[in-house]
Sequence to fold (397 residues):
Amino acid sequence: MLFKNCTVNGKLTDIAVKNGVITDGEYDGGIIDCGGLTASYGFLDMHCHLRDPGYTHKEDIVTGLAAAAKGGFTAVMPMPNTSPVTDNEKTLKYVLEKAEGLGVKVLPVAAATVGQKGSELTDCAALIKAGAAAFSDDGYPVVNDGIAREAIVNADKEGSFFISHCETPSLNINGKVTPESEEAMIARDCETSLKTGARLHIAHVSTEKGVQIIREAKKKGAHVTAETCPHYFCFNEDAVNGNTNFKMNPPLRSEKDREAIIEGLKDGTLDVISTDHAPHAKEEKAREFAAAPNGILGFETAFSAGYTYLVKEGRLTLSELIYKMAVRPYEIVGARGGRLEAGYPADIVLLDLDKEFIYTEDEIRSRSKNSPFVEKKLLGRVVLTAVNGKIIYSEIN
Ligand SMILES: [Zn+2]
Fold:
């Protein structure tokens, strides 16, 4: 396949693909005229929930990956809070086998502790052998300091890394994760990383002080990386207004926090934009606010949200946005990808930066509809996604 006339780093170019790999010019298959559309390496989402096995009334691997493809994600890292929990090789294999042939590459995150109960570590080495890309009890914090330290050190020792869902239950108020609740655990785990030299990745950072703690830890030389999600730079707590499609954990914060998140993205403290795509069924989100589950959709709107709220607002450049969605995640995970260069897998997205659209419930590919972006006007849209040179999503002819 030859992707003719695409824009990469502001320059018009062609991307040639042979046998699913980017080449210096040789290609097989057809020619697709991209008409000047911007091309990027496919996005890698380091944080999502596919709900399969166990919660397939919310999402399953098929619908989840269809939504991911539409959002330009060519690889995703599903979290292990399924039923059964992905704390064993059998469940890991189920996820990988079900994803096979669906296009989007799946790099599963295995549970750090058995049953995500925070007391007994899982078998890191065996799970890595079975395909685990990282370890996390996401959805739940590892509360016990000693176990958390062991989980961080163990994953690192096996050449992998721990992803920390930061929440200190004793500092929550009525189940709500306060800024202090999040920041206390960010500080604890950064300190562990600093003291032990072990790698650590902080999930869904949402507060100003959280960013500050990570910035300081990095300055001191800690091997810490961090992510935030589109909702934390698009919205603040004023957007919630009792609408359960704005309810997630950690929750939306103050405008000052939102500003600090954008600053953290700009100066590199926050390495990655992940989605925390977390589908919930209509009837679940229809409960009264306090009883409704945490989590919102993210795959299909992540790029457009970043382009609309960061690039169009002059806060990040397009290449900075692409770096945080398609380049840096590959560096952190250590998977081959992130570069539109000969020899790399042809995981490619085409972006229509002039496309303005209202996101509607009708176009949602996920099984659930719990997106805060429904009826929002967005600029910049993923119009084609290819994995290993094979088109898995297209809005162009
Ligand atoms: Zn989480």
Notes: The CA atoms of residues 48 and 136 lie 12 Å apart.
